[in-house]
Amino acid sequence: MNKQIILKNRPEGLPDNNTWELQENPIPEPKEGEVLIKHHYISLDPAMRGWMREGKSYIEPVELDDVMRAGSIGEIIKSNNHPRFKVGDYVTGWGGVQQYAVTNGDNWYAVDPNLAPLPMYIGTLGMPGMTAYFGILEVGKIKEGDIVLVSGAAGAVGSVVGQIAKIKGCRVIGIAGGKEKCSYIKDVLGFDAAIDYKSEDIYEAIKNECPKGIDVYFDNVGGEILDAALSRLRMHARIVICGAISQYNNMENMKGPKNYLSLLVSRATMQGMVVMDYAKDYGSAAREMGGWLAQGKLKSKEDVYEGIENFHETFLRLFSGNKMGKLVLKVIEA
Amino acid sequence: MNKQIILKNRPEGLPDNNTWELQENPIPEPKEGEVLIKHHYISLDPAMRGWMREGKSYIEPVELDDVMRAGSIGEIIKSNNHPRFKVGDYVTGWGGVQQYAVTNGDNWYAVDPNLAPLPMYIGTLGMPGMTAYFGILEVGKIKEGDIVLVSGAAGAVGSVVGQIAKIKGCRVIGIAGGKEKCSYIKDVLGFDAAIDYKSEDIYEAIKNECPKGIDVYFDNVGGEILDAALSRLRMHARIVICGAISQYNNMENMKGPKNYLSLLVSRATMQGMVVMDYAKDYGSAAREMGGWLAQGKLKSKEDVYEGIENFHETFLRLFSGNKMGKLVLKVIEA
Predict the structure, then answer these.
(1) ipTM of the complex in this document
(2) Where is each Enoyl reductase (ER) domain found (chains A, B) (predicted)?
């Protein structure tokens, strides 16, 4: 049987026990030109909260009674004359929160399980890594010597953003919650400084760590931290709007960045990005990131939990901050 | 004697009777290399409210007990060996709210009183016009066919923004307060549509007038109207942050744009601008704008009040909206 997580109700705040339902349905058969994938890992990302909301966004919402959308990685166990993929291939794509998926292969990519652990392909070498890469390089337009501030710095995107900025010769300050994460980004990832938003006054801390101001702020969180970053911009600063995890469960009463007029004072730019726009360049980005991983310049951390039954509580770790690095759920059963 | 408006107290909200003091002081003598200017007109601009606030901004605040800063235009009536200007020249610069000013001429420009009325040199051919020109062309990056929304559309900046966008082949929708202003921008200035924010639901109205969305939003007002514009962005939209007149008297309790995540959804850019950055190109801009004025493609309107004694109540018209076009105070006495 195929265990699936079905969206049953649209939550108002954090998802609760009525939001999803675990169902067991027969494993589907691939039609002509399709393959059947056995999922090993599901990617858990803050953006999923947005897909649960009705209305226009950069992607269609998940419909009620549909399988919850998610990135995934698995092995092809059956092919019905698929032109590209064969049984035994490992592939990553949008398989959803379920143990088996059938697809014609559009937007699925083959990966080599011998080059990197599978969870890394949905983390640093997957969407979060691509988001970091194109966000900081193409939107943030960093150059050597820039002062770069990143929030969610111990997360799947932020940790890669900061490391790429270090590779490019920037001074990098990360914001994360708690001592363990702050030590990790400084001592393991090599950030120049870490700010613990749970124990420090964020305005004071940014002022102390960025006395000359900020050239690039990469924002994953929104809210108070975005306000504080806006208060310390250098001239022609760039703010990359990648997400707003502090606001995703509170969109009706959304907090806008009250210091946005510093864009005017500092002739600064705030720009939104969606990683899918860069799909044609994923390949070259993955090769460069793979090189950095191989040389030890880039470190990748995945926080893996087990059991599709534990999807709901694991998902909530995205918003409680109770995880480190890329959050991944192992759904294959022994 | 020289009547001067002196800043005495920093207001919290709207300026009141304790904010400024009218003083009469002796007319100053120009030192070696300086000139004495007899002011004809003073420019009244929303930005002046910002200069009254303490703290870091794009320009130093006006000090307490100093003459209130303002753009101005007048005639040189005395020169003490000035290298560029001679008696009888008309010049515009930052003379402040007073009847006479002494200067070494830095950042002052000579104008020809026979080519255009003096108030126009501090309006459409002055800072507001330059702000509109560089804001919509360089920051807004308009191109033919773009859908352009502008707030404060009957004002000194907005009216020029909309007309330039029309000249460049855009569809232009203006937002203004009241029937008279809305008729003016449509019937006189040739905007394609007008939205009266005082009598219409701004979200509904923008939706109706921009069914395909907005390519460029030029924002002079902030607040609710910025939120509404953000809700209707097209892909890769540009938002020019020129000012936030709805918020200038309320900075402690600033309202941030709660719909800013539409920047992400629409891969849009929000960018701040300050006109002084374009000073080296003022000359060529003024020549192009002058050409448009001469051909009747660009219309300029100045709303002229009289008497430096009436500075305070005239200034408040900027925030009540009780004026049309560029607000100017005539300070020369008959």
Answers:
(1) 0.89
(2) 13-329
